[in-house]
Each structure stands twice: as C-alpha cells, then as structure tokens.
C-alpha cells in the first residue's frame, strides 16, 4: 500500500495533503469510543493520508486517482458521529470535506450548500432571512451538514419534522461517483434516499439542497417533576399539543440528571426533568401545560438570553452520553424506539437504575413517540446483547449503537436501492469498504 499511496500523493500533489501521523489519527476517528465494543474493534484503524478538497473538480480528481490505483476512500465531515461511520477499515485516503463550506444560495424555505458547511454557522446566516435548519444533532456547533446527512438520522427538530429519511427532509444532492470515469450525478426527490444516511458508501456528496423551517425565538426551559412517568407524560403531552410550537423535548430520569453537573442548580436531587425548547409566542399555553402535569419550572431563558449561554441542546441527545462519560467512562448507551409510554414504564420498572432512561420525543410516521438514549454501565458484550434482546422481545425497536455496519443499527435489513446504487457508482467497492453487510458476507 505504501508505494500505491506514494503514487496517489504524486498525482495529487497540487491538493492539500496531510501526512502527519497525529493529524491522520485525529482525522481517522469519530466518537466511536462511546461504545466499548466499537472501541475494541476500531481503535487501531487509520487512513494512510488525508486530502482536503475545496471544489467539486478537486473531488473528481481525487476520485479518478483512487479508482486508478484502487485505493479505498473514506469521506468525513467534522467526525462528530458515534458509530465509526467515518473510520476507515482498510486504510487509504481520508477525504476531509470541511473546506468545501460554501453556502451556494439561500432562498425562502430552501438552501443549497456544500457538505462542509457547519450547521450553527449556517443557521446564524439563515435566521437573518427568517429561516433555519429543520433538525440538527446535539453536536450542532461543530457538525457539518454533509456529515449529518451522511451519518445522522434524528435530532433537535425531530419532534416536528421526524427523521432525515422522511420524504421531503432532503430535496436534492450531487455526488461524485467512483467509476472508471468518475462523474457528477444529481439526485432529486425520493432518489436522495440512495445516499441519505449511507455512511459515505454510495458516492461523495458535493452539494445538498435542503428545505428549511421558519425560525422562531426559542425559549429554553427546564421543568422538574417528582415522578419520572409524570415527566414522561408531560413530554408526550407537550409533543401532542399541536398549538405549541416546539423544537426539543427531552426527559431525564433523576439517575441521568446527576451527570449534568453544569445544570446542578436547576436539577434538585431526586427530581426528574424535562429540557425543552418552545416558541416564545406560545409560553402562556406552555405554562398551563406545566401546571396541568404538576411540574415546576426551574430554569427559563428567553431566546436572547439563551444565545449567550451554552444551549440546553448540549445536555440532550448524545451530548448526555458525553457528559456522563466525562464523569464515568464505564458508561455506554442504547438507542431505542419505545413507541408508547406503557413500554417506557415497563422498562423503567424492569431495569431500575441499571438502564437509566433518557427520552427524546420525536415524530414517527405522523405520531409523537418516545425514543430513548438510555445509559448503563458496560460490563460485558453479552450483557449488552441481553439488554438489547429483552427490549426487542418486548416490542421496542433498537438502533444498535454498538455496530459500525450500516444495516446493523436501526434498519436490520439490506437497503436494496442503496445497494444497487452502490454497485452502479462504486463498482470496485472503494467507498468506505466494510461498512455494508453485503460486503462482509453477513
């Protein structure tokens, strides 16, 4: 491989190429270490070089060269994912897309961007026109739009707009293929699903056309409760209150709250908490809902006040796992679709504090449902599998965060359109090899 990489470097010497081992290590990894299972499998995986293109033409040149020498290529954004999506299993070229960061156009309700545009930076500009991103992960400040489309699925905003894969949440994209003669392909409408959440296995995204949401002044609020299920019912009730515009509904059991040290003044001992983002225009109705569920507001910031502080978003979704692991590195997590509050209550009672419940309410097939990013102390891989199996036997859906296989997470099945598209645009299987079940004879 070394001689082949030398040829790649020579052919692409006019581009920015990183060869420093420390930088290569940094740019070969993501937050896979949230899972001790993935950490064991991926800790020694590295690319051979990193290339940072700035234009579509440069991406095509990289693609041509990698095809010429049959060198694997792994695309990455900011590397804020947790599943090893952008970790190269077979070395080769790491294609760092963060310098392709132009907002190409921004109109009423839609924008066209390059993949390296950071989400928070985009929103800052878009809000000046009255619009914002529909959804974003808890790594919003550093995550790129292309990385989120390639490796994400839900986040802040999913209580209104559902999942990234829901029809309409991605309008169009352009990708560079890895054929003998790489070319640009534009996919629109339902065809975007060939590349959406495909871990960069099906083409190199160079442009995205994304629909936007009306921008609201989002108040950030913590509501505390004496009883966990009452907090969960409040979350469900808020999600189903169609007249209250909201962006985030997170519910933490008290066992989770103890890891959120920065919020300790607002999370009294033995209280359960809902962390929410609600339109300032709907606060009167929101307060009535809090009263109905016997909650108490312990933290309130207007949108203006919240803009000068760390957002509550960074104590939700997988940032909760990050905070907990900073205190106790033995903690890992699950990703669960509970579907109903009855299932939430069953698992809460069954596991107790072994599996600490953290809920995120989302829109799923038109209905508000509780999803979970539960925390637990890792003991053995066998125990992880037992916990997953019990959830699935009782009707919950597990998006397994302890596998790097594309289909091994939430879908559990081969995505035929994605697989067929890969055969078409990547005939030599050079794009992020090893991340699809079919490639591993699974």
Automatic annotation (TrEMBL):
**Pfam families named in the record:** FAD_binding_4
> What residue stretches are annotated with the FAD-binding PCMH-type domain?
42-215
Full protein name: FAD-binding PCMH-type domain-containing protein
Which keywords does the record carry?
FAD, Flavoprotein
Keyword Lipid metabolism part of the UniProt annotation: no
- Look up the record and give one Gene Ontology term from the biological process aspect: lactate catabolic process
Q: Report a single Gene Ontology molecular function.
A: D-lactate dehydrogenase (NAD+) activity
Q: Which SUPFAM superfamilies match?
A: FAD-binding/transporter-associated domain-like (SSF56176), FAD-linked oxidases, C-terminal domain (SSF55103)
PANTHER family the UniProt entry points to: D-2-HYDROXYGLUTARATE DEHYDROGENASE, D-LACTATE DEHYDROGENASE
Give the source's domain of life in one word: Bacteria
Q: Where is the signal peptide?
A: none
Q: Does the keyword Flavoprotein apply?
A: yes
